[in-house]
Design the sequence.
């Protein structure tokens, strides 16, 4: 079966994201580590890297900035990294310098990894691009040495950013409460057909990451940081760049306060997480259960391929572009 990959690497490293705002970084850090001045990599370095990891694997490495940082900070001795995009791998190779990094090209849905090769796996915003999420989690469990570690910072929110009607209503409400000069305009619900063209891998199974990892890993720490309101309103909002810091800071603070409140009550889901997990090697011994997981995943992807990349009736109607039918489907509560 053909896998879902993105042939256009130009969509990465572009646009203005919420975590480029200093106050947002403080908000995320406070949730990740309990200290608004302490980013998750600093936390990981201090608590888990007293001795550097000998060999680390970096998933969907892009232009290579993550592995370069880990090596330059002395967190790992050597690194192996892969990505699907030859353009991004070329950039990573050019920036590698004398660092001990081995790169190879691979589709994360098909990559083959040797058993017990790595003592650390690093995932920074890559698992939410993987279609065969069960396969990659199983492969990573196999590839890590016993007692190894995976450290991850990733988007775990709604698949393909398809927010529920209730969730979207909260986003719109907070947007209306912002000063006119800062409101996100136009504020549009993420358009699934456009997403499938621009990057069909974006958040393809983000909502399955944690439960699928838990099949093969013991999650020893998990630190979520919301984003259910603030991510949408502070990302790709060109108006914010026109404001002075004195104007911008209180606006961002109010959005983050709303984000915290809506997340705390469960009105919107957690969107981002920093977590650590260790492989549970015994999970690889239950062949009957592994076959069931594999079969379920293959059936899910076969069904989606027949439905133009949609994973539900609602998504399928959206892909077809039938707004009236999609509205009727929502009324009928088709899932």
Sequence:
């Amino acid at each position: 079966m053909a896998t879902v990959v993105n042939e256009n690497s130009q969509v990465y490293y572009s646009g203005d994201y919420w975590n480029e705002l200093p106050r947002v970084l403080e908000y995320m850090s406070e949730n990740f580590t309990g200290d608004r001045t302490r980013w998750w990599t600093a936390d990981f370095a201090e608590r888990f890297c007293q001795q550097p990891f000998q060999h680390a694997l970096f998933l969907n490495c892009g232009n290579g900035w993550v592995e370069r940082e880990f090596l330059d900070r002395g967190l790992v001795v050597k690194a192996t990294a892969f990505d699907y995009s030859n353009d991004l791998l070329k950039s990573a190779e050019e920036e590698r310098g004398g660092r001990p990094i081995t790169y190879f090209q691979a589709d994360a849905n098909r990559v083959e990894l040797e058993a017990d090769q790595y003592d650390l796996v690093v995932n920074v915003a890559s698992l939410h691009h993987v279609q065969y999420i069960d396969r990659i989690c199983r492969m990573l469990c196999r590839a890590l040495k016993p007692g190894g570690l995976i450290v991850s910072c990733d988007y775990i929110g709604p698949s393909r950013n398809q927010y529920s009607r209730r969730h979207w209503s909260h986003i719109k409400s907070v947007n209306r409460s912002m000063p006119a000069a800062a409101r996100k305009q136009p504020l549009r619900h993420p358009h699934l057909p456009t997403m499938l063209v621009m990057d069909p891998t974006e958040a393809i199974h983000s909502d399955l990451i944690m439960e699928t990892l838990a099949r093969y890993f013991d999650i020893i720490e998990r630190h979520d940081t919301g984003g259910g309101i603030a991510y949408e309103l502070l990302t790709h909002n060109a108006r914010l760049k026109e404001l002075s810091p004195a104007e911008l800071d209180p606006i961002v603070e109010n959005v983050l306060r709303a984000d915290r409140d809506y997340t705390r009550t469960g009105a919107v889901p957690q969107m981002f997480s920093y977590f650590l997990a260790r492989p549970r090697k015994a999970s690889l011994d239950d062949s009957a259960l592994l076959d069931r997981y594999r079969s379920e995943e293959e059936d899910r992807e076969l069904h989606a391929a027949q439905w133009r990349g949609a994973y539900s009736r609602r998504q399928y109607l959206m892909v077809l572009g039938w707004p009236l039918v999609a509205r009727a489907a929502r009324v009928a509560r088709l899932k």
